[in-house]
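In the design runs reported in the main text, the only information available to the sequence generator was the tokenized backbone. The following block is the verbatim input for one such run; it is reproduced so that readers can re-run the procedure and compare outputs position by position.
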């Protein structure tokens, strides 16, 4: 039976080539070139687009049935070959039983353009736009429109469905949001799918990709070993690796930055990597070696006084766009213990440095009275009754110093991430991060399940995330297991307990007692203006704020919390809110924009006496001339080695950059690193190795010419006179024309 799509409709429809979907009564012949679809499809039927057709969606709605009926196993729209969809108004296209919102056949290309909006939804195993279960799919080209594409389980919002192959995905324009189903990326390959290249150009407005639950990546492959995709290009950035992170957004304004690696006394070679702001990624594994030393991580300073990073750490936004950050290998001559090399249990002794990933089910303990450093440690215990121990077990009093990022999860479900025995004290401090958690029903840091009580816990600094299991605190007690004193002296703390579903009234704390248990006392404080505390508010009593400390809920200065004002009920009401130091107790740093460079201050708020670190990123051919730091009254503040001490006042920071001429040259060539540069009349002469990149800039920082040497001798004509700087082989040469 034919319908409106074969023009058995009104004369008006035939004349304007518009098809009202509400009048479609059965499966139809394909939509042909030039036709316009509008209205709401009212039945379960298959709508196809003819090979080579260009059609328009104008306020069209195809809501695939929710009924699990294999008789309706077709996509909302099915392309029969190459097709173009022009978007006008707002449109919704949803697949029917286990099918895509819009299906693109293998070997064909779907082009989407226009100024309208499209909401596309795939069912289980199928994409919002692209492929479906056990069916190869083709190429997708998006040139315009506002597009929201959501995939079903195991399938991305845009890309290939579950299994078989899919083509290339190219996004050249529009505002695109793509969300993956369970186990699938927002853009890329479905589970078991082998996809093509993914290209997002600088001509888009924005592209946001969000991964589905359990998915490892937001752009790229799904969570199965058989899922593959080609290269991923985001503007000028190309990678062979899938993009991690819960959700990332690409805009043309994103400018990449480089991370270079320095052996710092070691030997070997490591290529620099290019990263994009807002896009998390793992840095490469260390490839340097040093005889008699063990590699323990990276630091932004040669002497280790800067910011530390673990080997292959997962990082985001560690430098400024357009800059190059150099990370220096850190070496330790002594008892640096690489957990990945262990073949049995290990007891850490005083001054040990632990690093690396624990690969076996081994018990890691800390000797009574020892201070141990965790430098990029990963311990993710296996939940098994045969391994009845915590991720790290203190055998008595212990101090843990955290550097870089560390992950510690308990083994058997009844044991915590980190355990300290009764009547003993664990102190945690450092500049790094620690993510500690239970593998079931114990605290993140503290006690285990019933009859595994813990001692005292003191946190002085660091970024701490502690997550308790069922019935257990994030930091503190477990269900039926008490804990001693908990003292937060400083740090950036996030602690979440979890109450058992069957509980009534007695709940697990973020910081404090576990369910059906007791906690001695909890004292909350801070040492830096950037410190904070986020925790479940469930605690019955014994919550205290340290003397002379005043907290507020972030963004709300009208209510303060002090030692004398906090009550158990107030604490419970603060459940999950971010407590920060009161603004009346610290001062702010304001950084002014600079010409020919960028300056950053860290932190941007501080107490009197805190150390502030300044970092500069000069533009090409420039160097720092001076910092200009002043207090509220205009008094100059001394900066030494890029640091200053915070006064009892707000502070302004500015930086002045100047041309970095390197070695000035005259009309007589002067050599530096096998490079010669000189000028005569309107010509700049360069003698160097072929393929050496050079930039010629004026005194305002504008690039006059950027190219590479084609031979050992280059002659560059410059059409205007003045003073210029030639940057080549990391050296600057000032020339006059």
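Verbatim output:
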């Amino acid at each position: 039976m034919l319908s409106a799509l074969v023009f058995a409709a009104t004369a008006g429809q035939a004349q304007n080539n518009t098809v009202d979907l509400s009048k479609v009564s059965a499966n139809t012949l394909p939509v042909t070139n030039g036709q316009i679809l509008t209205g709401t499809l009212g039945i379960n039927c298959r709508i196809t687009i003819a090979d080579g057709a260009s059609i328009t969606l104008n306020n069209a709605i195809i809501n695939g049935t929710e009924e699990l009926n294999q008789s309706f196993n077709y996509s909302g729209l099915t392309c029969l070959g190459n097709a173009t969809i022009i978007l006008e108004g707002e449109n919704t296209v949803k697949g029917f039983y286990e099918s895509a919102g819009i299906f693109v056949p293998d070997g064909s290309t779907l082009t989407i353009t226009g100024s309208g909006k499209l909401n596309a939804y795939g069912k289980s195993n199928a994409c919002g736009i692209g492929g479906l279960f056990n069916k190869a799919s083709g190429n997708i080209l998006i040139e315009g429109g506002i597009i929201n594409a959501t995939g079903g389980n195991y399938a991305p919002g845009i890309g290939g469905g579950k299994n078989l192959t899919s083509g290339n995905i190219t996004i050249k324009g529009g505002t695109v949001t793509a969300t993956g189903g369970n186990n699938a990326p927002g853009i890329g390959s479905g589970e078991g799918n082998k996809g093509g290249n993914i290209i997002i150009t600088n001509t888009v407005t924005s592209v946001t990709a969000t991964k589905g639950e359990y998915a490892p990546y937001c752009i790229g492959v799904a969570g199965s070993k058989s899922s593959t995709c080609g290269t991923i290009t985001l503007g000028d950035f190309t990678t062979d690796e899938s993009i991690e992170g819960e959700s990332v957004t690409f805009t043309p304004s994103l400018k990449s930055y480089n991370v270079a690696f320095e052996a710092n006394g070691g030997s070997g070679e490591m290529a620099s990597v290019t990263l994009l702001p807002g896009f998390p990624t793992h840095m490469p594994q260390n490839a340097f070696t040093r005889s008699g030393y063990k590699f323990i991580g990276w630091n932004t300073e040669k002497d280790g006084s800067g910011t530390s990073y673990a080997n292959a750490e997962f990082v985001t936004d560690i430098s400024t766009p357009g800059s190059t950050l150099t990370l220096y290998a850190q070496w330790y001559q002594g008892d640096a213990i690489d957990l990945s090399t262990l073949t049995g249990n290990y007891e850490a002794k005083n001054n040990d440095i632990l690093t690396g990933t624990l690969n076996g089910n081994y018990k890691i303990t800390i000797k009574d009275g020892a201070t141990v450093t965790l430098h990029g440690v990963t311990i993710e215990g296996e939940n098994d009754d045969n391994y009845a121990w915590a991720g790290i077990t203190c055998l008595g009093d212990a101090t843990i110093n955290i550097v870089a990022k560390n992950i510690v999860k308990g083994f058997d479900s009844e044991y915590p991430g980190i355990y300290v025995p009764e009547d003993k004290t664990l102190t945690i401090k450092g500049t790094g991060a620690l993510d500690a958690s239970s593998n079931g029903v114990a605290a993140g840091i503290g006690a285990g399940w019933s009859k595994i009580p813990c001692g005292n816990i003191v946190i002085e600094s660091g970024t701490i995330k502690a997550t308790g299991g069922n019935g257990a605190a994030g930091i503190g007690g477990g269900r039926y297991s008490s804990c001693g004193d908990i003292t937060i002296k400083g740090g950036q703390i996030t602690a979440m307990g979890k109450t058992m579903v069957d509980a009534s009234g007695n709940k697990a704390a973020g910081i404090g007692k576990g369910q059906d248990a007791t906690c001695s006392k909890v004292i909350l404080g801070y040492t830096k203006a950037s410190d904070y505390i986020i925790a479940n508010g469930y605690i019955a009593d014994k919550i205290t704020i340290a003397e002379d400390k005043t907290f507020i809920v972030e963004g709300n200065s009208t209510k303060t919390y002090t030692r004398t004002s906090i009550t158990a009920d107030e604490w419970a009401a603060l459940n999950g809110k971010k407590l920060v130091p009161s603004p009346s107790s610290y001062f702010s740093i304001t950084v002014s924009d600079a010409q020919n460079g960028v300056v950053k201050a860290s932190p941007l708020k501080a107490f009197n006496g805190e150390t502030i670190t300044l970092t500069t990123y000069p533009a090409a051919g420039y160097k720092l001339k001076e910092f200009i730091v002043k207090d509220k009254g205009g008094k100059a503040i001394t900066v030494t080695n890029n640091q200053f001490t915070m006064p009892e006042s707000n502070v302004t920071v500015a930086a002045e950059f100047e041309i970095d001429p390197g070695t000035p040259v005259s009309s007589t060539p002067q050599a530096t690193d096998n490079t010669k540069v000189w000028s005569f009349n309107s010509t700049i002469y360069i003698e160097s190795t072929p393929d050496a990149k050079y930039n010629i800039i004026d005194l305002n920082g504008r690039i006059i010419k950027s190219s590479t040497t084609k031979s050992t001798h280059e002659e560059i004509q410059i059409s205007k006179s003045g003073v210029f700087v030639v940057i080549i082989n990391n050296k600057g040469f000032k020339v006059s024309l």
